[in-house]
Amino acid sequence: MSKIGIIIGREYKTRVMKKSFIFITLITPVLMALLMLAPTLIMTLGDSSSRNITVIDQTGIYAKALTDSEKYHFIFANQSPDEIRAATKNSDALTALLVITDTLAKNPKAAALFSHKQIDIDTKSYITDLLDDFTEKEKLSAYNIPNIKQIIEDSKANIDIQTKVWSDSGEEKAGSSELALILGMVIAMLIFMFIMTYGSQVMTGVIQEKTSRIVEVIVSSAKPFELMMGKIVGVALVGLTQMFIWGVFVSLLYGAGVALLSPQLLHSPDIAATMGNAEQIAEASANPMVSEFIGALQSVNFLQIGVLLIVYFLGGYLLYASFFAAMGSAVDSETDTQQFTLPITMPMLFAMYAGIYASQHPDSALAFWGSIIPFTSPVVMMARLPFGVDIWQIALSVGLLALSFVASTWLAAKIYRTGILMYGKKPSWKELYKWLKY
């Protein structure tokens, strides 16, 4: 077995067998699911505490508008605002004081809310909606046009534009710009996280071996280049393992979601034959929204996205990991890496912002060049893929990424072989440039 293979096996086994790797691999999908469901769960919880709103209505016409609900209770009073303020200064009985000084149809700013502390947005919105509805009805009644409310309601168009995608054979498939936007942003963030996480692991591993002097023993039997490549490839395999596990989890979740969204199929005797056919699932579903959603999923080339996710992860990781390894070899501790890691992380941070922009404007000049330039292409290209990208652009992007990895590995190896055995000196950028010329 080659020396690089031995180093790869060591790096892979020691990292995959760690409890932290197993824990993160298993818990991350659960945390991501909870993160996506958290806003919905929070909205359902709400605030059940009651709100007492005292009302001073100088017009005497808004008692019908301000009706009580389970949460909001309106109390009409004849005192002055100063009297109510003084009476409720040290009491929690009053949430807010609503003062209406004029007809809101004529003067929309004639209403004001007073309180001893800032009013929450829900309370303000609830009262505003009640007064808005009442005032609109009051204005409509003033026109004395028969059935004017029904006329206005019937005049609303409620247009729902359907999006269709043509395949290469000319077949029409349902599409979804919203789905492509969300998918593009999620994939861009995922590949950014993978590259930065595992790239920094390479740098941390190099620093730990250097500070513990283990590297002095290893380089006596393996060349510095073999050590660097073994570490980079070993950590890459760890990332692919985690990606594979998450891919299986997402596939199972997708299958379960389709089954839940299409309950009619669960009672079908031919469920085994129809379960894998998304078109039959869409047709069997009684809910048009489910049909539309599953049809939109059909237009996404998940096979292409899955394959290119691996390709761009490997390309982007190998490109940046070689620099991370070189920077790790040049310093004696992690605190000394800040001056060197900033130029490495800045392109990736820019790629993240460009990827978010590309998921909204996939055919813009920034999206195109961001998906071609190797330092940003792994993130930006993945953000564009759900919208469809020409094959020649993908081929050009992958080709330039591969050439950049070869060049970056050659440069990083020259720094690595010099810095890995150098101690007690903080190198400058000028010093690193000299190492490149050795």
Topology:
Elements: H1 3-16, H2 19-45, E1 51-57, E2 72-76, H3 81-87, E3 96-100, E4 111-114, H4 121-142, H5 148-155, E5 164-166, E6 172-174, H6 177-211, H7 214-218, H8 224-261, H9 271-274, H10 278-284, H11 288-298, H12 302-330, H13 338-360, H14 365-372, H15 377-384, H16 391-419, H17 429-437
Parallel strand pairs: 1-2, 1-3
Antiparallel strand pairs: 3-4, 5-6
Report a brief summary of the structure.
With 438 residues, the chain is α/β, with parallel strands linked by helices. It has helices at residues 3-16, 19-45, 81-87, 121-142, 148-155, 177-211, 214-218, 224-261, 271-274, 278-284, 288-298, 302-330, 338-360, 365-372, 377-384, 391-419, 429-437, and strands at residues 51-57, 72-76, 96-100, 111-114, 164-166, 172-174.
Task: Give your account of this protein's structure.
With 438 residues, this protein is of the alpha/beta class. The protein folds into two domains: 51-149, Periplasmic binding protein-like II (D-Maltodextrin-Binding Protein, domain 2), CATH 3.40.190; 176-437, no CATH class. It contains 17 helices and six strands. β5 (164-166) and β6 form a beta hairpin. α6 runs antiparallel to α15 (377-384) and α8 (224-261) runs antiparallel to α12 (302-330). The chain is elongated and about 95 Å long. Residues 264-276 and 278-286 have low confidence and may be disordered.
